[in-house]
Amino acid sequence: MLSRLEEEIAACGGWIPFARYMELVLYEPRLGYYAGGAQKLGPGGDFVTAPELGRLFGRTLARQLRELSPARVLEVGAGSGALAEVLIDELGCEYLILETSPELRARQRERLGPGARWLDAPPERFRGVVVANEVLDAMPVHAVAWTGEGIMERGVALERGELAWRERPAEGELLEQAGAIGVAPRYESEIGLVGQAWMRSLGSWLEEGVAFVVDYGFPRHEYYHAQRAMGTLMCHHRHQAHGEVFFQPGRQDLTAHVDFSALADAARGAGLEVLGYATQAQFLVNCGITEVLAEANIENALRYAPIAAEAQKLLSPAEMGELFKVLAVGRPSRALAGFSRGERSHTL
Q1: CA distance 141 to 155
Q2: What integer pLDDT is reported at residue 165 of this predicted model?
Q3: What is this structure's pTM?
């Protein structure tokens, strides 16, 4: 991977935007993290997502989806296929998967067999439910620094054969968005232009239905808080989280927290309505996770402790419960059970 980065940096005059670096180390064919063959998710990988903990998350989400009576569900970035497996069992409708990683797609096919159908690109038109669980955090972000000399775009260069941060004056849309964020220098953070573009594209092909985005992040006023002056970039390797973004490029996960205000703005700009925004814990409680937990305990009383531990991780403020959020957008407007209490779209 390093030689590929050196080649790219040289071809671009000695500097590439961090967003391009992130794109290469995650998605470059055969070399990027999500394009390689190593296991990424689950106990034997680098990190665990909510569906990897067990079936509780998927069964609870299915209660919300069932309320919408979808003829089709489209999951964007299905990971190991764990969530798809549960939703297919629970809903029994046509299940589509949009997956850019050939390696993950192969794992999904092995797990799901004929239960799903894979797409190579977003559909031209779609009616149904879209699910994106821990997808937006892995989309490339632009790194920005607010300095005494102005707003700078942070990028990557080579210094004595080593990858290193280098800054250039920000331009265009990046400068425009960064200029609207009121922070005091020196402040470093990220702006998810790619994620915003993805949300706008969703508005172009989601004719009718609801899209649920589940990820870790904040509304804008919390994202750019003074206590977060070093940004949100994070790497994951063998269940260890750290901030060394140039460590073993292509062999570790690289993510950024999601600015849900920016996503909501992009959705509205694309003609979609914001239908709800809440913490993962509140959303799952609203959807009836306690009933699902009771059902699971009755089905297999011997697994009570593992299921209880799974619920604790999904709901606890110290685990996924508060940091993870659920944003629903779509058309036309409708009430959703998952946001019946504790709805926070007024904070976006």
Answers
A1: 11
A2: 98
A3: 0.95
